[in-house]
Each structure stands twice: as C-alpha cells, then as structure tokens.
Amino acid sequence: MILPIGTLVNALAIILGSICGLLLHNRFPDRIRIIVFQGLGLCVLVIGLRMAFKAEDMLLVIFSVLLGGISGELMRLDRRLDTMGDRLKGLVRSKNERFTEGLVTASLIFCIGAMAIVGSFDEAIRGDRTLLYTKSVLDAFASIALAASYGLGVLFSFLAVLIYQGLLTLFAGYLQDYLSPLVISQLTGAGGVLILGIGITLLDLKSIKLANLLPALVFVVLLTMLKGWASGLLGF
Question: Where along the sequence do coiled-coil regions lie (predicted)?
Fold first, then answer.
C-alpha cells in the first residue's frame, strides 16, 4: 500500500501558507486586505467557471445541485459543520470570529476539484505525485491570502485535505472502477458550481449556504453512474 506522501506534502503546504498569511494579517492595512479579498474572490470565480464548463452533461449537474441543496437543507449540514468548526475553535482557544467560516471556505476550495481526485489516483496507482505537488504549490499561495483574511481557521483546513485525499489514495484501487473519467468530469462540473458560490460569497455579492450544497457532489456521481447503467441496459 502506497503512503499518501503527496497529500502529506499538500497538508504541510497549507500549514506553511496559512502561517505566512497569519503573520501578514495584522500588517495589512484594511484597504489592502479588502483588495486582496476581492482579487481572491474574482480568481475563485474564474476557477469555478473553468471547472463547471468541464461537465459533459450539465442537466445532470443542475439536478444534482438542486437535489443536493434540498438534502443539505433538510439535514442542516451548515449547522452541523458550524458546530464542528466551533468545537475545534474551542479546542484551540481561538478568539477569531471568522474561524469557522475560514475553515469551511478553505476546506471546500482545497478539496473540491479534479486535481484532488486525479492526483490521489495518480499517486496510488502510478506512483506519480506530480499533480499533488502542483496542487500543493497552488494551495500554499491560496492559503496565504485566505489566512490573511479569515485567520486561524484556514490553517486547520489541512485536516480536511489530509482525510479526504488520504482516503482517496488509500482506496484508489477500489474507487477507480467507479470514478471513471466521465464521472470525474461531472464531479468537477458540480464542484465548479460550488466554487462559484464561494467566489460570490467572497465578493459579498450574496451569502450562500455552501455547506448545504455539498450533497450535490454525491448526487452527481450517483446520477451519472445511473445514466451510464441505463444507457448500457437500453442500448442508447
């Protein structure tokens, strides 16, 4: 079994980037912090758009987002994640009011996307960590900007990356049979929609309950697999 070295490097990059951002936090005048936040929001919008356009069946993505939003709202995922974030905040005795917001926002940005999935598969199956190392560099720079704006919560997003990508690497042999290139493209598209929501929130255009949309990532996988199964069964 291959150890998730790429994921460990990714987590370390987020920690180092967050520390840099925290050191810069109090040295940034408000006007600099605001423009950095706005610039990050615009970049996140572009990333979300690029991801969303990779979906091969946008109709399934739309259904997935709608079903995911309804499911997440019924399960009140936003409150559950906030509770977890607040508990972690209490454990580290942070007084940062945006701790939980930063933790959830950074975790979504770092975990959603094809690089996390494909990179983990490449490491486990081919022993190639290039994609995860590249992602580590990108995440390090993103965590600097995020930590400078949100504070300490961003640093602890490394836990989400460690668990998510680590499990993908460890179970890649099993998951690769289910996460075909088509499923990954659809998953990337749905993830792109959520990333767009992050960009909109960062720009203060609209506050979106992104945590309640997370089930969309499950629905898009299930619907894509169901459609593939139905197409094979019916021969179209």
Answer: none
Beta carbons of 55 and 188 less than 8 angstroms apart:
yes
Give Cβ neighbours of residue 75 (< 8 Å, ≥ 6 apart).
212, 215
Structural domain including 135 reads 5-228
From residue 43, alpha-carbon distances to 101, 147, 169 in Å are: 19, 16, 28
Q: What total of structural domains would you count in the chain?
A: 1
Here the tokens at position 8 are 């460990």
pTM of the model: 0.79
**Which H or E element spans position 118?**
helix 114-121
Q: Is residue 58 assigned to a domain?
A: yes
> In angstroms, rounded to a whole number, what is the distance separating the alpha carbons of residues 190 and 51?
8
Contact 16, 155 (CB under 8 A): no
Amino acid 236: pLDDT: 55
